[in-house]
Amino acid sequence: MGDGNSVTSPAPGQTGDSPNSGSPAALDASKLKITLAQTLKPLQPIETLLFGQTFSDHMVVATHDPEKGWSAPELKPYGPITLDPQCSCFHYGGNIFEGMKAYLGPDDKIRLFRPDMNMRRMEKSCARLALPTIDGDAVLELIKRLVDVDRRWIPKESGYSLYIRPTVIATRLGLGLTASDHAMLYIIVSPTGPYFAKPISLLAVSENVRAWPGGTGGDKVAGNYSPGFLPQRTAADKGYDQLLWLFGDDRRVTEAGAMNFFVVVKRDDEDGVDLITAPLDGTILPGVTRASCLALASDPEFHQEISMRLHPQEMVYTMSDLAKWSSEGKLLEALAIGTAAIVGPCNRIGFEGKDIVIPGDGMGPVGTAIRKKILDIQEGRTEWKGWGVVCA
């Protein structure tokens, strides 16, 4: 890939901008510097796409210095970044990121799905790790510019999209154990297809936990993820696709892998069904798709559209509850919810040597209806509450 006109990424802690004129500069999307690649990569056939393996022609980069503030952001050819080995991102995990998608609608317009929620969560994640303050609205403008420049990478087929990964890493030099006042923002994008090709199985685990009260489970920080790799390998060795994370002596159900988790349970009064998920108690990631599922499930207009009555419930529930609902024939669906998967069905949950088997052979009616509605909004086939944001 050619680099076009040369653009040098500032070293950590250096902005290369004009001298400080007062308070440190906020991130300013209007100062974006653009250098386009002279040679573009070939597009891959969509059937060969694997999640997070193929990246577009360009990226966005900006750096933060405690005295000067944020540098003018750069949109430039995709490529490696150079960091000093002392940078605190390598030693203390001061890294946060977001996951979101761009879709190309039937009107050939690019849409993002509720991006304001991603930006507010990104700001909160930065604050949780004491990273330099970042303006999510400015990040969103940079995302819009990047996906417009690289729009040829957005697949047109339904179920496919351009995955967007804005990331902030701590770049303070030195091994002192302290918060980083230097940072780098970068944004990369990757064409992607359906995350799960079939229903997934879950292994419920309580000997390891994904998050704990007072920790970072409610924020999208990098350190939340790597501790799950070893338990995930154990689950795979036992024939399961993902983990179902439990917490506490009562084995409360929390999340599935890196996704929010929902179950559909038949009500005693026959008045529709309950759509149940764990509450946001600080250990659960406030997923954008999670919030959207709950909003749809509480909307009478959506109930009328799908001819079903849903009762969303954010409540504490345990493996004992799941087993009881299953034995009583009330456990109708189990769903893994997230940006990558959107809504994916689970077919069995392993726990203490036995399986709780979910009825059916794929997505049930509730998961099907919610997934279809969200995809229709994301892909521009329908308008709904302003959730689909046109960016180009």
TrEMBL record:
Residues 1-26 are annotated as: Disordered. It comes from the Eukaryota. Its cofactor is pyridoxal 5'-phosphate. One of its GO terms (cellular component) is mitochondrion. It catalyses: L-valine + 2-oxoglutarate = 3-methyl-2-oxobutanoate + L-glutamate; L-leucine + 2-oxoglutarate = 4-methyl-2-oxopentanoate + L-glutamate; L-isoleucine + 2-oxoglutarate = (S)-3-methyl-2-oxopentanoate + L-glutamate. Residues 1-23 have a biased composition (Polar residues). One of its GO terms (molecular function) is branched-chain-amino-acid transaminase activity. The modification N6-(pyridoxal phosphate)lysine is found at residue 220. Keywords: Amino-acid biosynthesis, Aminotransferase, Branched-chain amino acid biosynthesis, Pyridoxal phosphate, Transferase. Belongs to the class-IV pyridoxal-phosphate-dependent aminotransferase family. This is Branched-chain-amino-acid aminotransferase. It comes from Suillus discolor. The lineage of its organism: Eukaryota, Fungi, Dikarya, Basidiomycota, Agaricomycotina.
